[in-house]
């Protein structure tokens, strides 16, 4: 089992919202599309109708003093989404937004096409425990993917857990699982309405029945069984006050051991730190079962500690192995006391080192795989060899090494795409992986490590012809001269005449790389004649730690400059024009869109900020927001306050400005980026808007930050985003409901 350097806040902030990124099951993220419906050629409206009448939003005289600078916060009351006044505002905004969206002629056609294309069988990468194989399957439009098990690859699989039976509307989702080495027991998490909070339950794989064990108040934690299957390790927070469950700050996580068949109240506290409220703990049992590895994370900081405990000795104490907060360390595997770690210590693009617990001093470490020209993404040990996934200019390559670091060749991939998987036990001779690109549906492969051959295991059948589409990679120059890559996907034969509807996506944060992935929503966009562009901005993980750090804290403006330069490049090279250019991003990407549209409102035709971090002065006061200060900094620091205040989307809306059309989108159960960010930004943007272009907010109910969102809600959301965007570009099959865009 691999212990990942799990940073709750970073993973939490970005993982589920790379709308183009591949997931193990595409039912949980946008997926692909097909033949061609010619885009509407309706021209932009010739007459502007009156601007929308926005719901009233009271302004309070709330003013904060930040190091001598007075900052008003008139909509702070919207931070409480459950107050009667906030609920009234939310209902009124949704009535306005959905009433507006329902009038767009193209909306029904887009939804029909999106639904048609989404209706294909999807599989996850399978894995094996004991004598059982496990995998997820979605038969097409199921709200949630279903977990199956089979005794062999040729055997008829049976359903082990169907999350669709846990709620009538598909809003209860599976949130992580771990299966015993013999394959007989499964600990699994259940999350309600998109919340990060989950319960851990236990199911007997042989009978499909749940045991009485229930673990509550778990967040940012998986589970890890002991090798005898008698219990598992997990991390949790103390039970919060009812009023603070969805917005209160999460501090003082604790690592526990749960003995099967006993109540949670009897769980053994394994490790906590009363002197370190921000520390979180991920416990994972080593491959040989001898050691408990404790990964210590601190917010989204790309650095961690590694502690361990000898499980063979009941009296053993927790030992601090890597304790300096100097780098990221990711456990790969071990031979007795010899442990392999992937680290970026003295190697910003990553390397593999070996550490012997008997002589752990740094002078005794041995480098096994040195840093290369590409970024090392992940490493697994299967068939007694390393399978290393690397990124070259934001796309995947896979290389093989012996355990002493000798190169053993490369696993060939079909093209500019992303591969993931490659799990397995140390002695296994097979592994499974997925490959996906912007125009290739996620295909599952079985790789025979003895023969060195890959074979297709599951290939999706999607109703589109990928040969009609293409992806190219270009490089453009940012404001300070930095060379930035960008992927461009569209129909073949695209005319560079400046008229193509173009959707520019970005993220740029938390060391998260944006790599190619298959998306129904994005290919529906391309069917409309659209260009889908993904800029690999600084702040991400495409080129290792230095690329990430160049887009953090006092250098965060680099991310926005990179994004703006991508937009200017697309216009200058005749892919599109301002009116036909939309920008989109979610979470940290929602911040990106908010910052770009407030800095350059004249550059964009449409803005689609989703679940964004819009108030950069108060984000750290809610749930896990404090954990993002390693990327953003904090308003409590005078120098960092100046940088944050200079780009915070909420604080840089200027009354009397003609902003482009905006469709903000969030969810009322988002307990990661709390919806107050989007609420306050929308109220301020509506008040500031000087033009006729609409500023709307779409507020999803019974949904959270994105993980576990039912298929139907995903289809509806992207239908609305694309319909709004095409309508505002004059391509919606009729006049824009609220008139001209600028």
Written description of the protein model:
This protein is of the alpha+beta class and 742 residues long. It has an eight-stranded mixed β-sheet, sandwiched between helices. Helix 3 (106-118) runs antiparallel to helix 11 (711-728). The protein is globular, with a radius of gyration of 25 Å. The model is unreliable at 1-49 and 734-742 (pLDDT under 50).
Helix content: 10-25%
Low-confidence stretches: 1-49, 734-742
Kindly state the mean pLDDT as a whole number?
A: 90
Round the Cα radius of gyration to an integer and report it. Answer: 25 Å
Tell me the β content: 25-35%
Task: Count the beta strands.
Answer: 39
Number of helices: 11
Largest sheet composition: 8 strands, mixed
Tell me, briefly, the overall form: globular
Secondary-structure-derived class: alpha+beta
Query: Termini distance?
Result: 54 Å
Give the topology:
Blueprint: H1 8-14, E1 63-66, E2 69-72, H2 84-102, H3 106-118, E3 122-123, E4 127-129, E5 132-138, E6 146-150, E7 158-161, E8 172-179, E9 185-192, E10 198-204, E11 210-218, E12 223-225, E13 231-236, E14 254-259, E15 268-271, E16 279-285, E17 291-298, E18 304-310, E19 319-322, E20 329-335, E21 338-343, E22 351-356, E23 366-369, E24 375-382, E25 385-392, E26 395-402, E27 407-411, E28 418-421, E29 430-437, E30 440-448, E31 453-458, E32 469-477, E33 483-491, E34 502-505, H4 520-527, E35 531-535, H5 545-549, H6 557-572, E36 581-586, H7 588-599, E37 606-610, H8 629-632, H9 638-647, E38 662-667, H10 676-688, E39 695-700, H11 711-728
Parallel strand pairs: 34-35, 34-36, 36-37, 37-38, 38-39
Antiparallel strand pairs: 1-2, 3-5, 4-5, 5-6, 6-7, 8-9, 9-10, 10-11, 12-13, 13-14, 14-15, 16-17, 17-18, 18-19, 20-21, 21-22, 22-23, 24-25, 25-26, 26-27, 28-29, 29-30, 30-31, 32-33, 33-35
């Amino acid at each position: 089992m691999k212990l990942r350097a799990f940073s709750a806040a970073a993973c939490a902030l970005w993982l589920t919202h790379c709308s183009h990124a591949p997931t193990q099951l595409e039912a949980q993220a946008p997926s692909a599309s097909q033949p061609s419906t010619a885009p509407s050629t309706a021209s932009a409206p010739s007459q502007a109708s009156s601007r929308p009448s926005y719901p009233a939003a009271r302004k309070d005289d709330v003013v904060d003093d930040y190091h001598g600078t007075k900052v008003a916060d008139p909509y702070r009351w919207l931070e409480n989404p459950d107050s009667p006044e906030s609920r009234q505002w939310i209902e009124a905004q949704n009535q306005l937004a959905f009433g507006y969206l329902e009038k767009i002629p193209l909306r029904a056609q887009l939804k029909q096409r999106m639904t048609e294309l989404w209706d294909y069988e999807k599989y996850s990468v399978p894995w094996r425990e004991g004598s059982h194989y496990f995998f997820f399957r979605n038969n097409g439009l199921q709200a949630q993917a279903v977990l199956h098990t089979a005794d062999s690859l040729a055997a008829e699989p049976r359903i082990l857990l169907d999350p669709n039976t846990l709620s009538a509307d598909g809003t209860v989702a599976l949130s992580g699982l771990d299966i015993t080495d013999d394959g007989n027991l499964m600990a699994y998490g259940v999350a309600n309405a998109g919340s990060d909070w989950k319960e851990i339950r236990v199911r007997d794989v042989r009978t499909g029945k749940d045991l009485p064990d229930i673990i509550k108040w778990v967040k940012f934690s998986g589970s890890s069984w002991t090798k005898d299957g008698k219990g598992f390790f997990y991390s949790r927070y103390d039970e919060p006050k009812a009023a603070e469950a969805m917005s209160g700050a999460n501090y003082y996580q604790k690592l526990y051991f749960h003995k099967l068949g006993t109540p949670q109240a009897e769980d053994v506290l394994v490790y906590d730190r009363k002197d370190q409220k921000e520390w979180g703990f991920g416990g994972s049992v080593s491959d040989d079962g001898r050691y408990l590895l404790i990964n210590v994370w601190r917010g989204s900081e790309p650095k961690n500690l590694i502690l361990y405990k000898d499980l063979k000795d009941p009296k053993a104490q927790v030992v601090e192995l890597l304790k300096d907060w100097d780098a990221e360390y990711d456990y790969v595997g071990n031979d007795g006391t010899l442990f392999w770690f992937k680290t970026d210590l003295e190697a910003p693009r990553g390397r593999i080192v070996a550490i012997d617990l008997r002589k752990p001093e740094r002078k005794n470490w041995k480098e096994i795989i040195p840093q290369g020209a590409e970024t090392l993404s992940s490493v697994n040990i299967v068939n007694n060899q390393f399978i290393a996934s690397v990124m070259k200019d934001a796309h995947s390559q896979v290389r093989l090494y012996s355990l002493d670091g000798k190169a053993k060749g490369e696993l060939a991939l079909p093209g500019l795409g992303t591969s993931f998987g490659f799990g397995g036990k140390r002695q296994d001779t097979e592994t499974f992986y997925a490959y996906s690109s912007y125009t290739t549906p996620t295909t599952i492969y079985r790789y025979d490590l003895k023969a060195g051959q890959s074979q297709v295991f599951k290939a999706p059948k999607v109703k589109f012809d990928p040969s009609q589409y293409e992806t190219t990679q270009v490089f453009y120059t940012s404001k300070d001269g930095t060379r930035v890559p960008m992927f461009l996907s569209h129909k073949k034969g695209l005319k560079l005449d400046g008229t193509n509807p173009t959707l520019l996506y970005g993220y740029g944060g938390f060391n998260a790389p944006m790599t190619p992935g298959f998306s129904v929503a994005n290919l529906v966009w391309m069917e409309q004649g659209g260009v889908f562009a993904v800029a690999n901005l600084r702040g991400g993980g495409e080129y290792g730690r230095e690329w990430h750090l160049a887009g953090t804290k006092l250098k965060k403006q680099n991310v926005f400059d990179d994004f703006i330069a991508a937009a200017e490049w697309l216009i200058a090279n005749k892919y599109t024009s301002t009116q036909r250019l939309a920008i989109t991003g979610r979470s940290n990407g929602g911040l990106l869109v908010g910052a770009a549209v407030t800095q350059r409102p004249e550059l964009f035709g449409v803005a689609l900020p989703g679940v964004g971090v819009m108030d950069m002065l108060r984000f750290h006061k809610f749930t896990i927001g404090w954990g993002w200060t390693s990327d953003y900094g904090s308003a409590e620091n005078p120098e960092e306050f100046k940088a944050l205040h200079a780009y915070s989307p909420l604080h840089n809306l200027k009354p009397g400005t003609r902003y482009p059309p905006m469709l903000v989108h969030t969810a009322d159960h988002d307990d990661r980026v709390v919806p107050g960010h989007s609420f306050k930004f929308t109220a301020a943007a509506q008040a500031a808007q000087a033009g006729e272009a609409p500023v709307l907010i779409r507020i999803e109910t019974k949904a959270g930050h994105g993980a576990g969102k039912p298929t139907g809600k995903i289809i509806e959301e992207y239908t609305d985003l694309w319909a709004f965007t095409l309508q505002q570009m004059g391509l919606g099959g009729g006049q824009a409901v609220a008139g001209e865009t600028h």
